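User: Okay, second chain of the day. Same drill as before: sequence in, structure tokens out.
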Amino acid sequence: MKTESPFAIINVFSNDKISAKGNPSSVILLNDNLSDHDLQAIATELQQPATTFLWKTSKENEFRIRWFAPDAEIGLCGHGAMAATVFLSNEFSEIAQNGLKLIKNNTVIESGIEGENQHYTKMQNINRDSQSEPPAGLEAALGKKIVEHYATENKNIVVLEGEEELANMKPDFEALKEIDVFGYAVTAPSSKNDDFVCRTLVPHVLQLEDHATGSTQAVLVDYWANRLNKSHLESRQLSPRGGYFNAHHQKDGFKLVANSYYRVKGTFHHH
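Assistant: Same drill. Structure tokens below.
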């Protein structure tokens, strides 16, 4: 028997003024617990950078959440969390007015409506270790001089000298695959009116470079807030699609505010 589930594809972290298209995520609200195999098969079929699965819980404003890329489950997906917030705010607008909670294992992401066509997520900072030497081969693989390097439990922070170096960086992904690090939040000071720029490299997964990455903000916001002595930070992700981020550094984490738009809205049919 086929089941019908509410479904959308939503672009988040977009900004028309700077032609940033943002990052798309499929979102599906499920009634049933599907197997990991079935969840992965759906994500592979949809071929979006992330597919976000949601389930209701016994509390009306709390939803379980999981994210899958076409080739693997994602531990933390900031753009998927933001897409889920947009979707739930559309499906359950009255509930969303008072805030939502997205729950994955022990992680709780608070989110909700910020304003007209704007939504927010509150996330924990991803802790960084003290400054360290880059892994052997990293500088050569990036083809750029590394100014600072910090290991984290998610993506390592790699700081370059300026925006131009980051924009024209052409990573050697085959060389990066030889290094036992999951990914890199490569960043530099902005040459424009915002605070910093970044790129997200994930050499060990199919995508290689992400479009606009919320988890990279979780790595970088605390670094730049301390470096610039600012609590409100605006930044751009220099991927071909482009991403725009509006972050508020807080004592216990940070708040991301994003623009978004629906690309597809309808029903997903599955067994």
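The longest strand covers residues 253-270.

User: Thanks, on to the next one.
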